[in-house]
């Protein structure tokens, strides 16, 4: 076959790999007005109007897609229940394949072919019009779905399903995806249902890239992540989240970059920003490389728009080691184990812990040269394996700055330590954990700033810094999730 003809046919067959080398993406960390009893859809429209300012700016900077955070429209309310959240839910369309539903133009049918009443969908309609106005794909969580179900055998007692929902509207305002969160976190089950099995949802963009999606806590579960990445081969993930940081060791950015690296995907993560470092951490990552990221290390709310050119990944997925929950002999532990040391300039050492089947060792060397304001800080090797720290089975091995826990629950504060002042010449974490779909190799430095993957050596259950790269290390952890 003529080589030019062959190339032309190849381009037609694989447009998502050859139509462009990159796409331009945006994510927004956003602090919304908070829900108060008696609020209705006007609260969501008020927050959406604030978001529109950032959507407009993203478009001015050439973004083709923007991801908005979980709970970004409605904020957070500790005492939500199924009834008081109902006024801000909308009965979202179920039939939209093939660009048949455009809320802005009020063109959408129900299952019987009847026109949908858009008076019941004010927020979806407005979001659709904004996507159309700026000609940008909008992935937005918070237009949450209510589906009435009185005649179904699995229908809840109040006669309706309610879901934490991510919708995607394309550049023309068409509804192209609707995803219900597969795994509620703690109190969410008081007001949201979850699907019987996690939904596998994706869409194809106008610029030739296929996007999959999931929400926040879903990242720590086998599904839908496995089907999206390994069965369907999707390399671009949309991730709205309200991530509660456990600082210093388990911050949002660390999990985001860890998932991107372990699964060789582009990861577009948008976090809520209303309570400072407790929930901050958004970013755009490509195969573990941070293209743009942000963590607010203060206690004050913040908004931050991040934009980056994202390379289209065409690599094959890594081989994944599949483990079930019997890989380790789990104990039902409630707290991690710590082994502390003083970070004295010019010293080095090794520490070892064995906890419920996890063997964990750290080797370290503290820099002789420290800042003029340096005061000796305490660090700790820490390890865990079991249930209780998260509501799933996890194991981890790590090194972390150790500040006394004000609540005296742990040997070190694991909730609100965000700063460090100690330079490490080297650190190395070794464990008997394994690389897998749900493993996360994480490291950060002063201010919860993630350490770029190019400065780390990451192996099977191991993390170390590359020769000659010195960090004000805050924490570094290898974590693995186990599920059947």
UniProtKB/TrEMBL annotation:
InterPro entries to which the protein is assigned, alphabetical: Biotinidase/VNN (IPR040154), C-N_Hydrolase (IPR003010), C-N_Hydrolase_sf (IPR036526), Vanin_C (IPR043957)
Keyword Signal tagged: yes
Signal peptide location: 1-19
CN hydrolase domain location: 28-312
Domain of life: Eukaryota
Alphabetical UniProt keywords: Hydrolase, Signal
Entry's family note: Belongs to the carbon-nitrogen hydrolase superfamily. BTD/VNN family.
Name of the protein described by the UniProt record: Pantetheinase
């Amino acid at each position: 076959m003529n080589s030019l003809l062959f190339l032309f046919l190849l381009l037609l067959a694989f447009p998502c790999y050859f139509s462009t080398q990159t796409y331009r993406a945006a994510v927004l960390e956003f602090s919304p007005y908070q829900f108060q009893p008696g609020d209705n859809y006007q609260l969501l429209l008020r927050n959406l109007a604030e978001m529109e300012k950032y959507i407009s700016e993203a478009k001015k900077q050439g973004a083709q897609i923007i991801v908005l955070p979980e709970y970004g429209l409605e904020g957070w309310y500790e005492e939500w229940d199924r009834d008081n959240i109902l006024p801000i839910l909308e009965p979202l369309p179920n039939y939209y394949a093939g660009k048949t539903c455009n809320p802005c133009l009020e063109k959408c049918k129900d299952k019987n072919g009847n026109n949908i009443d858009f008076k019941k969908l004010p927020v979806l309609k407005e979001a659709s019009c904004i996507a159309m106005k700026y000609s940008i794909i909008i992935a937005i969580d918070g237009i949450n779905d209510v589906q009435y179900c009185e005649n179904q055998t699995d229908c809840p007692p109040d006669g309706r399903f309610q879901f934490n929902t991510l919708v995607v509207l394309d550049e023309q305002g068409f509804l192209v995806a609707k995803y219900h969160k597969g795994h509620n976190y703690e109190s969410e089950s008081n007001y949201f249902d979850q699907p019987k099995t996690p939904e596998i949802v994706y869409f194809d963009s106008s610029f030739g890239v296929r996007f999959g999606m999931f929400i926040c806590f879903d990242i720590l579960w086998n599904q839908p992540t496995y089907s999206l990445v390994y069965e369907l081969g999707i390399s671009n993930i949309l991730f709205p989240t309200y991530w509660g940081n456990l600082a210093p060791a388990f911050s949002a950015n660390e999990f985001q970059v860890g998932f991107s690296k372990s699964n060789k995907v582009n990861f577009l993560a948008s976090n809520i920003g209303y309570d400072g470092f407790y929930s901050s951490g958004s970013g755009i990552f490509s195969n573990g490389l941070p293209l743009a990221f942000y963590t607010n290390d203060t206690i004050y709310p913040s908004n931050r728009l991040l934009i980056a050119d994202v390379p289209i990944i065409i690599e094959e997925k890594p081989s994944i080691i599949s483990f079930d929950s019997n890989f380790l002999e789990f104990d039902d532990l409630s707290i991690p184990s710590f082994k502390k040391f003083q970070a004295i300039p010019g010293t080095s050492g090794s520490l070892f812990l064995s906890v419920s089947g996890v063997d964990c060792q750290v080797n370290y060397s503290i820099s002789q040269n420290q800042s003029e304001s340096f005061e000796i800080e305490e660090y700790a090797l820490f390890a865990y394996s079991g249930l209780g720290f998260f509501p799933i089975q996890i194991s981890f091995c790590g090194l972390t700055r150790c500040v006394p826990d004000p609540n005296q629950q742990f040997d070190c504060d694991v909730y609100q330590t965000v700063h460090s002042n100690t330079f490490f010449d080297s650190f190395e974490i070794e464990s008997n954990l394994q690389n897998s779909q749900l493993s996360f190799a994480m490291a950060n430095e002063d201010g919860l700033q993630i350490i770029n993957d190019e400065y780390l050596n990451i192996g099977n259950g191991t993390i170390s810094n590359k020769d000659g790269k010195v960090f004000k290390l805050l924490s570094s952890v290898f974590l693995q999730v186990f599920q059947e």
